[in-house]
Amino acid sequence: MKSTYRVLIIEDSEPLSNLYMQYLANEPIELTCLGTGQAALDHLQVSTPHLILLDLKLPDMSGEKILQWINEQAIPCAVIVVTSHGSVNTAVDLMRQGAVDFLEKPVSAERLKTTIRNQLERTRLQGLVEDIQSNFERNTYQGFIGSSLPMQNVYRIIDAAAPSKATVFITGESGTGKEVCAEAIHHQSPRTNAPFIALNCGAIPHDLMESEIFGHIKGAFTGASNDRKGAASQAEGGTLFLDEICEMDLELQKKLLRFIQTGRFQKVGASKEESADIRFLCATNRDPLQEVSAGRFREDLYYRLHVVPLAMPPLRERGDDILSIATSFLVTYAQEEGKKFSRFTPEAEVVLRHYPWPGNVRQLQNVIRNVVVLHDGDAVSIKQLPPPLNETLSDQEIKSLAHLAIPEPVNHANAIDNQISSPNAEDGIRPLCDLEREAIQKAIAHCGGNVLKAAVLLQISPSTLYRKKQAWETDEA
Fold first, then answer.
1. Which residues contact 219 (CB under 8 A, 6 or more apart)?
2. CA atoms 255, 258, 259, 264: torsion sign
3. In the record, which positions carry 4-aspartylphosphate (predicted)?
């Protein structure tokens, strides 16, 4: 029985189209093949597929032009670019323009099926995320603190991905909480009562990494005085988290790929294989696709692991989460150190809120610990913050921004009375819906038409923004 997932192949070579159809004959998808760009554009105006396999070179137009049209029309479908050898750089550029992946010709049956399955799994999970009510916000979640829109999206992806067996590939700058994210996925999964084993591939010497993952037997190498279980055995039935996976050397990546594919591994020095039932999670602070292009990360391992991508937002993009996290650290450390700190002055809040935090949450944690250990008082002032925070803004800038930290209270009753009693009360007064529409339109224009970025700036749900935008366009039609 075919699923409701629709896949469109845009390929001008009839033999290749037939080959792809043969490869995908037993996949649970509804498959359509078209040979020209114009035929594809005509098809997309009446039917929206979940996934498009797009050849870069077509007889009537380029694949790049088709991708540009899809982006301009905001068609909600994923695009995988198919390119010939020597055009990989072009394909990578197209990924920056919105394509989700690329395949290099000739495409093997297994590679084609794996790539399409992975992308359709992402589509399924994204659908689950969108089904969650847009106004369902959480201030804390499985070790995280924060209610910003970027973090709400992280929470929803974890909710959707955790029950699955799919591998989650976590990316983000150092200190953004990638291991906290991995633990959250584990604790939200059916494996929550089984072990969670984390390995930092960048902190373990390369010649010991294989033993750390797979274990070794006595006498396998100098210093191996006893048999030792590796992380694979320790994580049986649970989750194995490989942090900074792009630091792993290529030879070990090959063995890891086989383990992921078969569930079987061999201890260092052993002659027989063992098996383990494990859910894999991995993370890196690098761009994994660039690592693949540079030859430092195996392409086949990347596609095996990169099933559900999850990007952790940097702290500077999380708005008032900065103050929530800082206050939580402040109260905790004050209790530990026997201090009275419980809040920040409005000026200190301004500095914390506007500092770029290159070290993210880890840096914020260290800053607050420093303040509590070295100072005393009830409220943390700017002078108590360590460099460079106590010199990031001038006094004039702090005064001009201080009102952003703690808004002035408004007496709505007096404000209404003043408006009624004013002879010019109606001057300049506009309906709230007009002001909202103007603010949203300005935000979308500022973001170059990117509705998602505009939603982040406005701190509202993207689905809400899309809904309002569609309603206005319908009214104008």
1. 269
2. negative
3. 55
Distance CA 50, CA 31 (A): 11
400: left (phi over 0), alpha (psi -120 to 50) or beta: alpha
Domain of 339?
Answer: 316-404
We report the CATH number of the domain holding residue 456 as 1.10.10
Helix (H) or strand (E) holding 284, with range, is strand 279-284
Q: Report in angstroms the alpha-carbon separations of 34 from 119, 292, 470.
A: 20, 31, 30
pLDDT digits (tens, 9 = 90+) for 333-382: 999 999 999 999 988 888 898 889 999 999 999 999 999 999 999 999 99
Beta strand residue intervals within 92-222, DSSP E:
101-104, 140-141, 144-145, 168-171, 196-200, 215-216
Q: Model pTM?
A: 0.62
| One domain for residues 254 and 376 | no
**255-310 confidence digits (pLDDT tens):** 999 999 999 999 988 888 999 999 999 999 999 999 999 999 999 999 999 999 99
CA 458 from centre of chain:
19
Q: What's the pLDDT score for residue 336?
A: 95
Residue 139 domain flag: no
